[in-house]
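User: My collaborator and I are trying to settle a disagreement about how two of our proteins should look. Neither of us wants to argue from intuition anymore, so we agreed to look at predicted structures for both before our next call. Could you fold the first one, then the second, and keep them clearly separated?

Assistant: That sounds like a sensible way to settle it. I'll keep them separate. The first protein:
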Amino acid sequence: MNDTRSQPAPTGGVRIVQVDAERAGQRLDNFLLGQLKGAPKSLVYKIVRSGQVRVNGGRAKAETRLEVGDQVRIPPVRLGEQGDRGAPAKGLLEAMAASIVFEDARLLAISKPSGIASHGGSGISFGVIETLRALRPGEPLELVHRLDRDTSGLMVVAKKRSALRELQALMREDPAVKGETINKRYLALLAGRMPDGVMSVDAPLHVGLRQGGERHVQVNDAGKPSLSHFRVLERRGGHSYCEVRIETGRTHQIRVHAQHIGHPVVGDDKYGDAAVNRRLREQVGLKRLFLHAASLEFALDGGRVPYVLNAPLAPELVEVLDRL
């Protein structure tokens, strides 16, 4: 098949899509989210797990990296009409416009508020990318990476496919860009008193799915290599305000590594300490996860064009620190 566009099969709903150079290296789940506009992530994972999606005739995992020429079978799925979701609320559009911290010809960066998903799905009509596309109709905006819904801070969106490919290669430590790095820095409040200095956590992480499709991550030798570095900046109210640098970008990495060392991120309903969370909610009004993506440093064009992007700590987190 020479045509890289989707080809309808005689059965009517099934499509066979050939991967072109623009999509090479993309994960299968992200590829499907692009092909099935409006589909929730839970549906995408379901059709992959059930074997309805095939790559070159065989079953594949959601994290499979696609290559040029791969044939992807996409089954028919029932999605609402494009107009069903309407438009993002005015307040969300205004918040997203106000969150932009950097923009040039190929990248746009925002300081994402906590509570907004990276993209729609699983009962969420509008995430970051849908809202930005509504703000910038006609612009080819694509997410470079994701943040957990409850995490605030720096998110980068590509305006050009070339920038998307290069940044995603950096994010996944692609051998083709060996020697180039992307430095990711977070700010977090961890429960209890962390020791001074830098504590490095080298512990593999495995993503499991609970009933209903909810992801749950744990330290497990069968998981992927994961490395985080925690450094105490100051102590507040018996807890540790830390800078966290991560060398890998696994799902829930900081949250699970923090739990693993006995100092979970405060405000974490999934991996945290319920008693600490309740006490901080009552005493200082902490109503969210205290985790913020503070900065990204990288270079494009083979290392020739450096970027240093920053997102100031979310105001509600500054207030919590002031009250501790």
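The second protein, kept apart from the first:
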Amino acid sequence: MEPRKIRVGIDTGGTFTDIVAVDDETGAIVTTKTPSTPADPAEGFLAGIEKVLAKLGESGDSIGAVSHGTTVATNKLLEGKVENLGFITTEGYEHVLEIARQSVPDGYGNSYFWVKPERIVPADRVRTVGGRLSFDGSEIRPLDEESVRSAAQFFKDRGIRTIGVCLMHSYADPTHEERVRDILFEVFPDATVSISSQVLREYREYERSITTLVDAAVKPNIRNYVNNIANRLREFSTTDGEPRDIPFYVMKSNGGVLSAKEVVHRLLRQSCRDRLPELSVLR
């Protein structure tokens, strides 16, 4: 069998999907574009692959890898489609989303006119749990596991399947948050959970809370989207008569890539607390 020699890059935009293919043997580069399909972005993605392979005169068996950049997660946020989202935080800090930061855009002269953005989680979907860590990670009070189970049952009873968890000072020690996550899955196995110590392990509770909630909010969409494309890519190539898993990578906001498996099974990571969250690297 001939070696896999074609690398394909695909960027899905709102109007067009842009495709570039590189032949590793000859160095030939071919570009094309095809209309995007907002109702099902995977359709435009696959049409683009077919189109660029036709221009090269190659089949799917020649594809060595596919890399993909997409704004599916960002679009969900911009379109205001964040819903069915819950939040768990430390007892006494249920208003962290309202308090936010002191900074006002354009200076304090604008403070009269500036209105804080709407909170990403309604107040009635916030639950607090007992237990407290110090800033250095030492335990002041042990985690109240019964309050965690009560919060998990609250979300389960209301069908709130997506939950973000941000406990005070969990950047210093993730133990409490990890236990909260485990209890959530015990009580509510169908839940999608993000914990801040794995999303943004840095100080400042508001930034950590918001980034964690954004991560949780977009996980289901990205997981379904990436799984759908990965499965349909198998139709393009075979090995010994069986569908082949074509190496498939998704671009992160820092310019790097992750494999589809990592995108589906890992949590979002963010190393700079004041940047926009990386919306591509999801569990």
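Some points you might bring to the call about the second protein. Helices lie at 41-56, 72-78, 96-99, 145-157, 175-187, 196-199, 205-233, 260-265. Confidence is low (pLDDT under 50) at residues 267-283.
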